[in-house]
Specification:
By secondary structure, the protein is of the alpha+beta class. It is built from four helices and ten strands; from the N terminus they run αβαββαβββββαββ. The longest helix has 10 residues.
Length: 141
Amino acid sequence: MRKALQAHIPYLGICLGLQTLVKAMGATIQKCHTNETGFRDPENKYFKVKLTSEGRKDRLFKNLPDYLTVFQLHDETVELSPQMILLATGEFCKNQIVKTGKTTYGIQSHFELTNDLLESWITEDSDLRNIQRNNYDLTLK
């Protein structure tokens, strides 16, 4: 990862990929005080991330709404290195989307999630079988 950063190779790290980026930049990973799993937080509200002023200006996010509903699947959070720019924050785990350089991004939530991928995850992982999506239960029988 460090060599890729030095070579300015474009990178998009999702979840563990964000953590890999942060470690390569010399920052740390810590336990989040709230486990973020699924679509809804402990108060049964959808998990959302809020774009920062830098995020609203960034070419990847500038045409998106200020708040994005996301799927979370982590119990850790990242601290940022001085070279990183915070593009979006969350209520429970603050640092949600970061950028360093022109083409290196890290995203804590699962923007890549599709219906098929979610179905695959809940089929293969017993810990995910009882998550909620769009107010209906996805529990597989």
